[in-house]
Amino acid sequence: MAALDLKDKVAVAGVGNTSFGALYRDLDAERSPYEMGAQAFVAALEDSGLTKDEVDGVLVCRIPDYARMCDVLGIRYPRFVNVLEGGGRQASLTLQYAALAIAAGQADVVACIYGNNGRSVGARYGGGAGGGINETGISDAAFGMTSPGASVAHMFRRHQHLYGTKEETLGHLAINNRLNAALNPNAVMRDPISMDDYLNSRYIAEPLRLLDYCLINDGGVCTILTSAERAKSLRKPPVYLHSMAAAGDFNHQYTVDDMFYTPLQMVAKEMFAASDFGREDLGVAEIYDNFTPTLLFTLEGLGFCGRGESGDWVTPERIARDGELPLNTSGGHTSESYMQGWALLAEAVRQVRGECGERQVADCKTALYACAAPICSGILFRGDA
Amino acid sequence: MTSDYAKPLPRPNRLSQPFWDGTKRHELLLQKCNDCGHVWFPPSQRCPKCLSTEYEWSKASGRGKVWSWIVMWQRYFPAFEADIPYNVAYVELEEGPRLMTNIVGCDNDAIHCDMAVEVVFEDVTSEISLPKFCPLSS
Predict the structure, then answer these.
(1) Is there a domain that residue B1 lies in?
(2) A-side interface with B, Cβ within 8 Å?
(3) Count of domains in chain B?
């Protein structure tokens, strides 16, 4: 069967989000992920100019129950509705599934809603009773092993061994995020950091330090998709889903022996083959950075530099807002907020629209969102020329 | 062996009981497919290569190398607090599979990727012996 041509057929009509910085400083054990999602939905709806009754598709992520979400929002009869697990890998996949549904005619307007109360309820991503014990009866916890950060630390140590990657490279990434966050009024951490600050920050899972880690937070993000034709008549200029791809990579650990190189190469091949523009034409790259080394793995896997060469490729100048590849212009997960990719997706859309104020990248017509995780994925966005 | 061992313990089940029976005897056992010879870990009910359900528990050499390693400074498990900073290594066995473990018998500073190691068993309770690894005595 011939593949459906999805190029520019579906567009982002609206994006919305909660505060991030204010929520970070205001813990509330009864904060509801549904209300986080609802706040973002209301903002995205306003952004799009659509009315609630025009939304006939709802995908929720991290929000536990689509039924409760739809009930809260008074969306009684959605034609397309489901839930995706609350993992960072699901952010772009949620948009991809929504786009497929719209292209196939299963829905006209799909709200992709993310809500998270993780900081308030003490989400730790490590430790805890039974951590690491799974159906195999083998336990990582018995050896003190736990947390995605430690898994990424394993991969980064190996990367250092194979390619001589320096810890300062991670520092450049953390500093770049912070420089961008300083211009983002909604970011959690906005005070500048120096390389000394980076190198002096405490180890969590050595070789990774506190400043390599994402900021667990509460919050919500919503992205509303519709057909390109419909988007053209709405409030904001459409930002098209130009091409997209995904590839899984599964073994028994989050740690994989090629640092997601193989699935990312699959994503890059498919995504760029279907695109009218290439890596060199990107206005911004918003790349999932649960921990800073994930950026290196993604840059290599997607072919921005050769395999093992990211340590030299990443320079402060190259990844700055006025550089060759402006990277994580909102501050990313280490400075803006850990929204499991969703806030980076919103930033990609807003950069293409030119709405990012002081941190706006000049003449930004295209954007990449990508994620390296056990499901790797990428979306290329573009605006009207 | 201490009776007040407080660290997290594996919970052997039908799938992994032979593995833990093996470590208790100080043998490292891995599943080996009777049809295609593939060796895998962690346990599952069929060979992930050829999907056969015919396998045996085969004694591994116990030798391998450190694929990677970290030093944990964060207190995720209260019972590990006294060990901080402790190492966690991902060891690649000669037979192919990799497993999470700790390196014992050398300082953290002496661990390096691709370091040759061999299994040693730590009898942590009367029921559980954990496979750990020490530098291979050449």
Answers:
(1) no
(2) 124, 126-128, 130-133, 135-147, 150, 153-155, 157-158, 161-162, 202-208, 252-253, 255, 257
(3) 1
